[in-house]
């Protein structure tokens, strides 16, 4: 069974940086979408960034220029480098895999079938 396990969350001050990691035990051969989502209480889970296993990335406008999604295919780890963090970035962050490929990789939850347990990111003013 494919599993995604996030780590790297924590508490930082506004303007700081964090790097989230997601260990992927699933298939690495098939082309598919990988993504980071975030969710706060009372809100729907929203897409943050996606990466096609072929390379192309997609970002929500709220994080463009600040966050970078990448993947180490040899170590099977998905990363989210978060710079210039803002209090509104505070959320539970989840990594996800589509299982199948979509073009472009969307920022919608229904695209993804495998999810991690989440890691909390808290940004203080």
Protein model, in words:
The protein is mainly β and 125 residues long. It is built from no helices and eleven strands. It has strands at residues 4-7, 10-13, 18-24, 33-39, 46-52, 57-59, 67-72, 77-82, 91-97, 114-115, 119-124. The strands form two sheets. Strands 2, 4, 5, 6, 9, 10 and 11 form a seven-stranded mixed beta sheet that branches. A hairpin with a 4-residue loop joins strand 7 and strand 8. The mean pLDDT is 92.
Concise synopsis of the structure shown:
This protein has strands at 4-7, 10-13, 18-24, 33-39, 46-52, 57-59, 67-72, 77-82, 91-97, 114-115, 119-124.
Distance from N terminus to C terminus (CA atoms, Å) equals: 40 Å
Q: What general form does the structure show?
A: globular
Query: What is the H-and-E element order?
Result: EEEEEEEEEEE
Fraction in beta strands: over 45%
Structural class computed from helices and strand pairing: mainly beta
Oligomerization state:
single chain
Main β-sheet description? 7 strands, mixed
Mean pLDDT: 92
Helix fraction bin: under 10%
Low-confidence parts lasting 5 or more residues at pLDDT below 50? none
Radius of gyration: 13 Å
Write down how many β-strands occur, each being a DSSP E stretch of 2 or more residues. 11
Number of helices: 0
């Amino acid at each position: 069974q494919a599993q995604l396990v996030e780590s790297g969350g924590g508490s930082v001050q506004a303007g700081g940086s964090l790097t989230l990691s997601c260990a992927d035990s699933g298939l690495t051969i098939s082309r598919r979408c990988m993504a980071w989502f975030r969710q706060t209480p009372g809100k729907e889970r929203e897409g943050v960034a996606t990466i096609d296993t072929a390379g192309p990335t997609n970002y929500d406008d709220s994080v463009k220029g600040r966050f970078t999604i990448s993947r180490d295919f040899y170590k099977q780890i998905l990363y989210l480098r978060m710079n210039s963090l803002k209090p509104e970035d505070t959320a539970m962050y989840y990594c996800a895999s589509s299982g199948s490929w979509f073009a472009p990789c969307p920022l919608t939850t229904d695209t993804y079938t495998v999810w991690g347990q989440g890691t909390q990111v808290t940004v203080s003013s």
